[in-house]
């Protein structure tokens, strides 16, 4: 059967005969005839790229900047979704006279290797004919995003892939100040894991080869499925192998594929000794150090002594690649070299932090904690992010509860300080709701470095305070995007936080200290969303109310020089004792077999081959579409919230 015909085999036939194929299939060519033959020589990955999924959604909570959508296919889809709830009236929602709603187009980009535990950023934009002037302060109602197909010039929706909802933060990477576009940070969940698929070349296609390749990969890589450790590879047909991602590589999946590609198909004790010796020599040459480190990492922990010897090299690039491979082998011998690279080699900083995050060793954890004291904001936040990746529950992260402020105040302060909860004739009663999930994440890191506040506008809803003493300087007159107002006169030790309802209801008022953590929790108790809190912090910075520096998206993402050094052997380290050589990048990359594994950059355009690559049929053929239950919204009843604010029911 030609490769182009493989999808003609029905899934039920594969189920019936798959086992037999794997057991009795005879390879057309014996694997390992060439002693240097590796995985990348006989198989290539499918799905290594990004797919755009799309849906139509409703944004509520706008401050008179929304609009009623014009008749269109988008409106028809949205009306269909709203009508699923018989208690809702389509026209009263879409034609809201106060213009608090807007139809939006919702998109996300997904890739192989994603799982339902991953939080996806969601893109929100207006249709071309929309009259909405701004999405500031809006909240995206829950909506499904589907695969998109084109048939006879018409757009068709495929199967639902991502469920998305949450507060909209305006702007994007191309237009950071445009109020007509936005993102929901971490607002999407993919409904099922998307594994990588290895496609065996036609020359080697057989059940026997698939089984051999599966076993070979599983000897090197495993992942934990609940309490049990399993091999990452599963041969599904005579030419397809499904790959899971080991936890150690989940944050750097390209590294996983690069190492897997280097696994040799023929292995004997004699060949192993010869390879370790030869690759150890290649590791000491800056031109071949990157590739040699990947080769040694593909062998496993037995290569650690060879990698450790390279840590004594005079060339920093050699030492770095050796330390990086050791980290992914969970060997702490190169920890100090990685820390040095974070501080002194900006071209390797991103990947050095990723390597430190991959280790499950106390040495790596301790170094990351120490790096959070550095004065450079990029290093500090990078170390924080790496530590969070390594161990989300590490106490040094300083995770702080956002909600629960009112209940804690009621238990501890209400009796002693009657002003702590001011409820009078001009103040609406504060409703005490049962515990629910925090609307964003708040961290207070005890740090010996200078005080710093970090917020994200591109990655996830997260506020990180470095240092445990952050006070707002008075006087304070601040407003978020929406109804939250903060006021304090010069010299005041308390701040009045108010929520002004657009419906004309009495304002809700709280009083809190000038401690920034308490202020953040106080505004969240009054319903402030993450974008509104970010706006308040930016306003406080602009008005000199913050003692600490405010940093936004201090992220090191430059990996171009690292890729050149790893894939082409180019010497990118500035070393007066070493004269950089000249290389043909394209020829070096082709020689090393890395052409399949280009670095994937989120938000970048997919290549033509990626766009044309068939995926849905193959996924169905492999049985990769298990039953899925629609996730329970973390904030149920948001449409009812809209109705309440419209005055249609009791508060």
List keywords for this structure.
disordered N terminus, 651 residues, 6-stranded antiparallel β-barrel, 22 strands
The residue-averaged pLDDT reads 82
Distance between the termini: 66 Å
Strand order of the largest sheet: 2-3-4-8-6-5
Number of strands: 22
Our Rg estimate from Cα atoms comes to: 28 Å
Estimated structural class: alpha+beta
Strand content: 15-25%
Portion in helices = 25-40%
Detail the poorly predicted runs: 1-28, 420-426, 576-596, 600-651
**Count of runs of 4 or more consecutive helical residues:** 22
Major sheet, described briefly?
6 strands, antiparallel, barrel
- Shape field: globular
What would you note in describing this structure?
It is a single chain. The protein is of the alpha+beta class and 651 residues long. Strands 2-3-4-8-6-5 form a 6-stranded antiparallel beta barrel. It has a 5-stranded mixed β-sheet with strand order 14-15-17-16-22, covered by helices on one side. The protein has a 4-stranded antiparallel β-sheet with strand order 1-9-13-12. A hairpin with an 8-residue loop joins strand 20 (494-499) and strand 21 (508-513). Helix 8 (289-299) packs parallel to helix 10 (316-328). The protein is globular and about 80 Å long. It starts with 10 loop residues before the first helix and ends in a 6-residue tail after the last helix.
